[in-house]
Amino acid sequence: MSANFFRSVKRKIVRGIFQSDRFKRYLETSFFGQYFVRRQAVKSFDLMAGFVYSQILLCCVKLNIFNFLKDGPKDIGRMSDFLNLDKAKFDCLFMGASAIGLIEKDEDDVIDLTVQGHIFANDKGLLALILHHEMFYRDLMEPVAFLKEKDMETSLNKYWGYVEQRGVPSDAESEQKTENAKRYSELMAISQPLVTDQLFSAYDFTRHTSVLDVGGGKASFSIRLAKFIPGINVANLDLPEVCEEAKKNVKQAGLVDAIKIIPSNFFEDEIPSGYDLVTLIRVLYDHSEESVIKLLQLIRKSLSSNGKLLIAEPMANNIFPGISCDAYFWFYLTVMGKGRPRSSKELIALLRDSGFSKARCLKTTLPIQTGVVLAEA
Ligand SMILES: C[S@@+](CC[C@H](N)C(=O)[O-])C[C@H]1O[C@@H](n2cnc3c(N)ncnc32)[C@H](O)[C@@H]1O
Questions:
Q1: Could you tell me if the CB of 160 is within 6 A of ligand 1?
Q2: Which pLDDT tens digit goes with each residue over 247-302?
Q3: In whole angstroms, how far apart are CA 188 and each of 103, 282, 361?
């Protein structure tokens, strides 16, 4: 019997339960039923309160609480002096951050980070991402209007200057192109280890002699690769305004001779050939189906018959179907432009349609952050 059959039976049973007061009462009072009801109630509450949780997290980052507690616990008086809030507001933030598991207080009124708190405190990339979410939250102030209005202008769309822009850019916005590229490239560079740590443990780069990172931003990945495999021939391709930042970064790392910087628009120019591996890190999910196929075809054309392409980005359904982080990426990428999260299965189909002979998914240790797909020309 098919999965659909079982799904439809399950749906019928669930609907029956929710339409029967008697059965609902039974669930609420029976031993196993109570466990189920409590779990569902917590889940419903979390869904309803999620916005408040994100605002508390944002406050902790903006008020520097993670840094303040990073090196050791502090007593409550010191914490109160540090935050300089009136008592009611201090209690509100303190109790809120404790309730969502970021900080904890012991009997001696000493406050420290929890495990979750340490995760945030020690990850600059995550902290930078949380800060830039202020824009995203503003864009979702009127979520229904966003869904209904065609091509609504959003702050995220303006922030990511390389995605198709909505509305007519003002003169000031056009002049700020370089400044804008600098800002988003900085955010990408600081958050890149979230993805590249996973990539390095999933794939053995030592089998390659030349690697082209397409949409490589400030060349963080190229720098890491050149340091990891001395003598490897690495190139970083990105838009001219981003390449200015990449050049500075490469110079600072003392790798000018090892890394070639290629200013180029990958939709308009040819992808340079002669590399046995091309990488696309957090690039495809920013773009529509049509653009992704175009880029994949251009990359396929640039590769020799034994060339390979490695795609690394957060992928949909990456742990199991319907996981809640998919909701984040669907909304983020739609608010930003025309991109969307794709499952490894969808990417593999697009790779085949673009002329790649084989493609498969590689295992990563934190699939919630990064999925990896390897394709052969
Ligand atoms: C989300 S960022 C990822 C950067 C980097 N790979 C990382 O993971 O940190 C996408 C990158 O693609 C670049 N990009 C977007 N459209 C491009 C185009 N048409 N030509 C070249 N680069 C482009 C952007 O400038 C940006 O650096």
A1: no
A2: 999 999 999 999 999 999 999 999 999 999 999 999 999 999 999 999 999 999 99
A3: 28, 9, 24
**Phi-psi sector, 119: left (phi>0), alpha (psi -120 to 50), beta:** alpha
216 Cα–ligand 1 center, Å: 6
Of ligand 1's listed atoms, the one at least distance from the Cα of 266 is 20
pLDDT in tens, 82-99: 999 999 999 999 999 999
Q: How much distance in Å is there from the Cα of 107 to the middle of ligand 1?
A: 50
**Cβ of residue 239 lying under 6 Å from some atom of ligand 1:** yes
Please give the structure tokens belonging to residue 39.
């779990």
Q: With contact defined as beta carbons under 8 Å apart, do 229 and 205 qualify?
A: yes
pTM: 0.91
Pocket test for ligand 1, best of 124, 162, 223, 288 (most atoms within 8 A of CB): 162
Copy the structure tokens of residue 336: 């930003």
Q: Is 36 helix (H, G, I), strand (E, B) or coil?
A: helix
Backbone phi, psi, residue 269, to 5°: -105, 165
Distance (angstroms) between ligand 1 centre and the Cα of 264 equals 11
Mean pLDDT of 197-224: 96
